Amino acid sequence: IRVRPLTCTETRRGDQRVVHSLGDGTVYVSAARHDATFGFSAVFDTGASQETVFEGSGMKQLVELAINGFSCTVFAFGQTGSGKTYTLMGPLTQGETQPAAPGLLGLMQRSFACLLEQSRSHSSDLVLSASYLEIYNEQVRDLLSPGPPCALPLRWSKTRGFYVENQLSVDFESLEAIANLLQQGAEPRRRRTSAHALNRHSSRSHALLTIHVCSRAVSTHLAPPSTYPSKQGTLCFVDLAGSERVKETGSSGELSVEANNINRSLLALGHCISLLAKPRGKRTHIPYRDSKLTRLLARSLGGSGVTLMIACISPSSHCLSETLSTLHYASQARRVTTRP
């Protein structure tokens, strides 16, 4: 769980702080008729730095697991304006002309640095590539392909599960190269963002950046490279669009349609998580096909993947119902077990 600080607007409005970290991964919500305590793997309070979140969330272990051939996923979840994109990517004002201060870099950039550092010290030959997609109004679009993003078909096969046909995958070897790919995909003309009453840079789509890690053991023998044992791991970063109430955001027209699609896919994700949280013997069919998001996250949620969920919340009394909803959601997700 990550609790963001109160914003200037919330402070001026006189909002009370209703979320308190009690240490040892415990969160206490104190408000009229809503006193509740929740337990999690880790809680990062309002003063926690980006470095603290990276070190304390288990992100480093995910990088190591991806190198060892596992499918790893990290996704940020929470209401709009709760700090998901900041946690994953750092401040949105950064760019070529105004790079972010090193201390503000998000989990993505820190993971890239860790991955490249590991690849240099590894005794195997690592090949790294990246693909970047967004799900906007239930259409899957490639954020790295040249020209305006166009819809791509989502397929299913017995060997690969759900996959996106014809998505572009770009090789990279340096921190600068992957940072440029991230910057390219997040450009306003590509990744859909809009301003509304709760967030000046609200993501209007779910974005999935996947790092493909192919490691091949370096052999001292003169055998052809194709006979070396290889491992194929992935590290997927999912920046979910925020759940939102149209009444609170003041959305209308196209913004309202986007909000309905966002909420529908998040509801499908919540439904899958609640069913996966049940004991294995009591599980019924898991409806991954209910949305494009749950199809693409099927292996991460209940299959062979290792998944980290960072639930971002506001401590403000004004956001109480959304905060409680996120905490209940995260409590369910914590009970899901996969078989990596």
Automatic annotation (TrEMBL):
<dbReference type="InterPro" id="IPR027640">
    <property type="entry name" value="Kinesin-like_fam"/>
</dbReference>
<keyword id="KW-0505">Motor protein</keyword>
<feature type="domain" description="Kinesin motor">
    <location>
        <begin position="1"/>
        <end position="336"/>
    </location>
</feature>
<feature type="binding site">
    <location>
        <begin position="78"/>
        <end position="85"/>
    </location>
    <ligand>
        <name>ATP</name>
    </ligand>
</feature>
<dbReference type="GO" id="GO:0007018">
    <property type="term" value="P:microtubule-based movement"/>
</dbReference>
<keyword id="KW-0067">ATP-binding</keyword>
<dbReference type="GO" id="GO:0003777">
    <property type="term" value="F:microtubule motor activity"/>
</dbReference>
<dbReference type="Pfam" id="PF00225">
    <property type="entry name" value="Kinesin"/>
</dbReference>
<dbReference type="GO" id="GO:0005524">
    <property type="term" value="F:ATP binding"/>
</dbReference>
<keyword id="KW-0547">Nucleotide-binding</keyword>
<comment type="similarity">
    <text>Belongs to the TRAFAC class myosin-kinesin ATPase superfamily. Kinesin family.</text>
</comment>
<dbReference type="InterPro" id="IPR019821">
    <property type="entry name" value="Kinesin_motor_CS"/>
</dbReference>
<protein>
    <recommendedName>
        <fullName>Kinesin-like protein</fullName>
    </recommendedName>
</protein>
<dbReference type="GO" id="GO:0008017">
    <property type="term" value="F:microtubule binding"/>
</dbReference>
<keyword id="KW-0963">Cytoplasm</keyword>
<dbReference type="GO" id="GO:0005874">
    <property type="term" value="C:microtubule"/>
</dbReference>
<dbReference type="InterPro" id="IPR027417">
    <property type="entry name" value="P-loop_NTPase"/>
</dbReference>
<dbReference type="GO" id="GO:0051231">
    <property type="term" value="P:spindle elongation"/>
</dbReference>
<dbReference type="GO" id="GO:0007052">
    <property type="term" value="P:mitotic spindle organization"/>
</dbReference>
<dbReference type="InterPro" id="IPR001752">
    <property type="entry name" value="Kinesin_motor_dom"/>
</dbReference>
<dbReference type="InterPro" id="IPR036961">
    <property type="entry name" value="Kinesin_motor_dom_sf"/>
</dbReference>
<keyword id="KW-0493">Microtubule</keyword>
<keyword id="KW-0206">Cytoskeleton</keyword>
<dbReference type="GO" id="GO:0005875">
    <property type="term" value="C:microtubule associated complex"/>
</dbReference>
